[in-house]
Write a structure and sequence with these properties.
hydrolase, 497 residues, 3-stranded antiparallel beta sheet, mainly alpha, glycosidase, Glycosyltransferase
């Protein structure tokens, strides 16, 4: 009979073999195409309003059909932010900007993979909502739902009981951050739809101009005026200056008008665009995105943008692994994951992979490299770094676990109200506010698959706890998924730089 010690050794050896095998996994172009399809499908899961005919997750139902009623405005549509039922305007707009940027840069790859239409559907659903939300020259509705009462319930979005209170910013209660991001989203979408639906492109661009004018004229942080309604959930921690740079950068890219270029010249220092060095890009801090966006024009010879390009180089050098760049200021997990913070760390992994891929494209077109402490880093190196981050998400990590739901071996207890409870089709009886916590605390797998959702991810030691209560690790969000769409499309077509 086998001894306990021998059995223990065999089990340990098996675990080591599984870990080493998972670390050695390679992904094919078909794998990336599969992950791409799922990454976009997550947006179908988050839809609010009367569901459109193209919605692919048929277990979801209509929700939020009276949104905006408290403010006597139609705010139906848009997206639930994460695993709750609130529509937060700042991260939603950022997510739409990133989806649109993916189309702007990687349209051909999305078309070749058959995902351009699905991506544009997801963008338009969100920008239609932003058009509704920008109700006047100096008025923007920025949230639907009280997050405090919403988080005290665990209910399906189709039957949510907490008040659907609507919140806005205006000339007396400014929100340059959320307005600047909304302008960026609309401007980016105008480029995404150009040549496909020119009338819609013109419409959203006109609205982007108007919303940016409001953001710039009436300056202030939206969290200063909305307080507990947006904090601590989506406070504007970085201030509003980055969103003004970001919005102006997108309007310049969409119009090529000298007025927006002059704005970026004049305000580069005062708004921090040419003086702020960061190593994180997120729904809150847009500096790196704006700097990289403008670096493309610097490569093309547009005068006055070298300061932005220098900061873009600094960001790139700071996020590359220490083996590549001595300027690395990030902590990496033993398995190779960039680690920023405990809360939804994967948002930074997907956003940095997007910026690395985009900058690789710019470098390749300009036949340039990045100087990182005397080492010339090529476009191919940037693509390799981005791919390694994507591969970690998809399962090439010490746990051999995919952090994209529905791909490979993935978490099954995702912190997501709709996915964690039976659908309206299978359980038509209403689930009351507190009754839903029976499902929240259950150790059973979610009855519905949150297809394509990228969860918050493991900690700095590559450890992960598949439990709904571990919000930072198991909750997905729009802004985690949106950057990876463009990256996956490039990997799926196998483009080389």
């Amino acid at each position: 009979m086998m001894s306990r010690l021998t059995l223990h050794i065999l089990v340990l050896a098996t675990l080591v073999w599984v870990t080493l095998t998972s670390m050695a996994l390679g992904f094919s172009r078909a794998d990336y195409a599969n992950a791409l399809d799922k990454s976009i499908l997550f947006f179908d899961l988050q839809l609010s309003g009367k569901l459109p005919s193209w919605q692919r997750l048929k277990w979801r139902g209509d929700s939020g059909l009276s949104d905006g009623r408290s403010g006597r405005v139609d705010l139906t549509g848009g997206y639930h932010d994460a695993g709750d039922n609130v529509k937060f305007g700042l991260p939603m707009a950022f997510s739409l900007t990133m989806l649109s940027w993916g189309v702007v840069e990687f349209r051909d790859a999305l078309r070749r993979t058959g995902q351009l239409g699905n991506t544009l559907n997801a963008i338009r659903w969100g920008t239609d909502y932003l058009l509704k939300a920008s109700t006047g020259p100096n008025e923007l509705w920025v949230q639907v739902g009280d997050p405090n009462t919403d988080h005290n319930c665990w209910q399906r979005p189709e039957e949510s009981d907490p008040p659907r209170t609507s919140y806005k910013v205006d000339a007396n209660r400014p929100g340059s951050d959320v307005a600047g991001e909304t302008a960026a989203a609309l401007a980016a979408a105008s480029i995404a739809f150009r040549g496909i639906d020119n009338a819609y492109s013109d419409r959203v661009l006109a609205r982007a101009r108007r919303v940016f004018d409001f953001a710039d004229r009436y300056r202030g942080k939206y969290s200063d005026v909305l307080g507990g309604e947006v904090c601590p959930f989506y406070c504007s921690y970085s201030g509003y200056q980055d969103e003004l740079v970001w919005g102006a950068a997108w309007l310049y890219k969409a119009t090529l008008e000298s007025g927006y270029l002059q704005y970026l010249y004049r305000n580069g220092n005062s708004l921090g665009g040419t003086t702020t060095t960061v190593n994180a890009f997120s729904w809150d801090n847009k500096y790196a995105g704006a700097q990289i966006l403008l670096a493309q024009f610097a490569f093309e010879g547009v005068n006055g943008l070298q300061g932005y390009k220098n900061q873009a180089d600094g960001y790139i050098c700071s996020v590359l692994p220490r083996s590549i760049s001595q300027f690395n200021r990030l902590q990496y997990s033993p398995g190779g994951m960039p680690y920023y913070m405990i809360n939804t760390n994967m948002q930074y992994v997907t956003s940095s992979s997007f910026l690395l891929t985009t900058y690789a494209k710019y470098l390749s077109a300009a036949r340039r490299t990045v100087n990182c402490g005397g080492r010339q880093v090529t476009a191919a190196t940037l693509i390799s770094a981005a791919q390694s981050q994507v591969d970690y998400i998809l399962g090439r990590n010490p746990r051999g676990l995919s952090y994209m739901v529905g791909f490979g071996r993935y978490p099954t207890r995702v912190h997501h109200r709709a996915a964690s409870m039976p659908s309206m089709r299978t359980h038509p009886r209403k689930i009351q506010c507190l009754e839903g916590f029976n499902w929240f605390h259950s150790w059973n797998s979610n009855p519905n698959v949150a297809m394509g959702a990228i969860v918050g991810g493991p900690n700095q030691n590559d450890d992960f706890d598949d439990a709904r209560q571990k919000i930072a690790q198991t909750e997905p969000a729009l802004y985690v998924n949106s950057p990876i769409v463009g990256v996956l499309s490039e990997l799926a077509v196998g483009r080389r730089y």
